[in-house]
């Protein structure tokens, strides 16, 4: 298992990380709103589905119908995989609307959430899981130490209970300190990929940065990419 690599599904990315993500671990895809995090996740899921794998997509901010619609706008038919029971899109939003009510319901039970997810994964035989975004599952009103404990519980539980290769997304919100909101999770996951939109001269350019990848030699440089219909995120060759 240790040496197995799982393709990212992103054209041009696998060669930069020795063939793909080391299997059975969790990876964070972080970036500001609109940088392509959900598209990255769809490509990762789609790559597995096309190779006969099964997958679970946990939609936290959007409804499953929105995910299917966004995929269709890029020319990807995820609905057929749902109908074939190879893809399960879980709507996690009811969990959070319940939490907003009584004060005692303010936190999600991370262990129970992972147990529920594990039962779906085992029943299906899924090998790839996406949680998009992971923030609402682990944010705590108490303190950053408590939030960090939630992340630790989540990442360890995903690895121990699921045995899948997981993508977690998080919003990177620029703050006065210059540290994004994604900071807490980054210590615990096996890899971090940062998606950005930066200004180069007088135009905006999309970039991908491999910030961390355990057990993998990586170059800390920003790679430009385009979002192309039917292909999704495509890295530009380095000149």
Report what the structure shows.
The protein has 8 helices and 11 strands. It is α/β, with parallel strands linked by helices and 239 residues long. The chain has a 9-stranded mixed sheet, sandwiched between helices. It has a two-stranded antiparallel ribbon with strand order 1-2. It starts with a strand and ends with a strand. About 3% of the residues have low confidence.
**Unreliable stretches covering 5 or more consecutive residues:** 175-182
Task: Tell me, briefly, the overall form.
Answer: globular
Strand order of the largest sheet: 5-4-6-7-3-8-9-10-11
Count of DSSP strands: 11
The biggest sheet, with number of strands, parallel, antiparallel or mixed sense and barrel status, is:
9 strands, mixed
Individual helix count: 8
End-to-end C-alpha gap: 35 Å
Structural class: alpha/beta
What is the radius of gyration?
17 Å
- Fraction of residues in β-strands: 25-35%
How are the SSEs placed, and which strands pair?
Blueprint: E1 5-6, E2 21-22, E3 26-31, H1 37-50, E4 55-59, H2 64-73, H3 79-83, E5 87-91, H4 93-99, H5 110-124, E6 128-132, H6 135-138, H7 144-162, E7 165-171, H8 183-186, E8 191-200, E9 203-213, E10 222-228, E11 232-235
Parallel strand pairs: 3-7, 3-8, 4-5, 4-6, 6-7
Antiparallel strand pairs: 1-2, 8-9, 9-10, 10-11
Task: Give the key terms.
two-stranded antiparallel sheet, 27% strand, 33% helix, 239 residues, alpha/beta, single chain, nine-stranded mixed sheet, 8 helices, globular
């Amino acid at each position: 298992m240790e040496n197995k690599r799982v393709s990212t599904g992103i054209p041009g990315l696998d060669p930069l990380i020795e063939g793909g993500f080391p299997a059975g671990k969790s990876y964070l895809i972080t970036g500001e709103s609109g940088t392509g995090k959900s598209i990255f996740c769809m490509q990762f899921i789609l790559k597995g589905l096309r190779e006969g794998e099964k997958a679970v997509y946990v939609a936290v901010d959007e409804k499953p119908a929105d995910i299917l619609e966004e995929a269709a706008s890029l020319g990807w038919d995820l609905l057929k995989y749902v109908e074939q029971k190879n893809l399960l899109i879980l709507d996690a939003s009811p969990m959070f609307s319940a939490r907003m009510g009584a004060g005692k319901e303010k936190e999600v039970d991370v262990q129970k959430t992972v147990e529920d997810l594990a039962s779906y994964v085992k029943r299906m035989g899924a090998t790839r899981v996406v949680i998009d975004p992971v923030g609402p599952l682990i944010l705590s009103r108490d303190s950053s130490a408590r939030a960090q404990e939630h992340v630790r519980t989540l990442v360890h539980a995903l690895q121990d209970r699921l045995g899948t290769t997981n993508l977690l997304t998080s919003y990177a919100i620029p703050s006065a300190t210059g540290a994004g909101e994604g900071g807490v999770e980054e210590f615990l996951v096996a890899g971090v990929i940062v998606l950005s939109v930066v200004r180069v001269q007088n135009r905006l350019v999309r970039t991908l940065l491999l910030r961390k990848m355990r057990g993998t030699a990586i170059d800390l440089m920003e790679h430009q990419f385009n979002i192309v219909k039917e292909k999704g995120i495509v890295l530009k060759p380095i000149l």
